[in-house]
Amino acid sequence: MKYDFMDVLVSKEQIAERVNELGRQITDDYSGKDITVIGILKGSVLFMADLIRAIEMPVAIDFMAVSSYGASTSSSGNVRILKDLDANVAGRHLLIVEDIIDSGITMQYLLNNLASRGAASIRVCTLLDKPERRQVPIQADYTGFSIPNEFVVGYGLDYNQMYRNLPEIGVLHPEIYTNAGE
Ligand code: IMP
Ligand code: MG
Q: What is the DSSP string of 16-82?
């Protein structure tokens, strides 16, 4: 699809192909194990829905929501849980599914938090990675696409809660930000 407010960075077809590859890899890596897939709301929902259908074994799913912090506040102390898991995850193999790893601060917080609950193992699957932006040394076990340092929307990712429903991932045109708040 063509949009007048963004340039497509990753197409529907590229997303579908990569999600299937990730699903196959996860299926192989965890063969014989029970896993709980934990989606981080809200950005991961589209990716999560497609990814779990590409994992060829029964999995449990659960969700967490954490607060985002303003651009100027980058200390890990500012991450807060808005919605916690429903289930006790002690002894479970956890796969965290996130939309994007940017500074890495959110994921660092999640890893520390979930490790303290006695999980058997924890791995991270992120749709997107912006390695140039990293402030803490966090690396995903599974990455959909590594992208340059640009603000992207679509396939779950938002700008001011908009654009999450777009089937592609794209870079918003600068005038969208300039006009924001007018
Ligand atoms: P981090 O803690 O800096 O790694 O931030 C991760 C969170 O910031 C993600 O879960 C997103 O919600 C948000 N984020 C970072 N970059 C982008 C982007 O390019 N588009 C949309 N949201 C983003
Ligand atoms: Mg997010």
A: HHHHHHHHHHHHHHTTT--EEEEEEETTTHHHHHHHHHHS-S--EEEEEEE----TT---GGG--EE
